[in-house]
Specification:
The protein is mainly α. It has one domain: Leucine-rich Repeat Variant. The chain has eleven helices and no strands. The longest helix has 12 residues, at 16-27. One of its GO terms (biological process) is regulation of translation.
Amino acid sequence: MSAWIVIQRWHWPAVSRRNYVVQFILDSKNQSVVMILVSQFEGNYVQLSMQKFSSNVVEKCLKVFGEEGRAKIIAEMLSVHRFEQLMQDPYANYVVQSALVNSKGPLHTALVEAIRPHASVLRTSPYCKRIFSRALLKK
């Protein structure tokens, strides 16, 4: 119940201290609390990914959530009209990297297929170089 109060009081983890509180709650791995977070953040993962502090929370969600939760986050990211711009964002690019690391099977393949058509442009972006320098696309 106390986690619910924290979530309601601090609706978005956009401020540094709130970000740490939400990450702490995620680390508790209390499934009922995690499900509350899934519902609170759903539809907002792209926006959260593009903010300094909340992008860390989305990365943590990709690590802590089960396959279904990860799929929701990745599907939301892939639904962005200009996915390549999301990858060039100073904060969201780390979320994309985390999605690549924490996904497997068809989910990972969908991410890789969304990235590859833009490879020539993205390789020159200072924020995307890590995606191509690591073996994330070959998993």
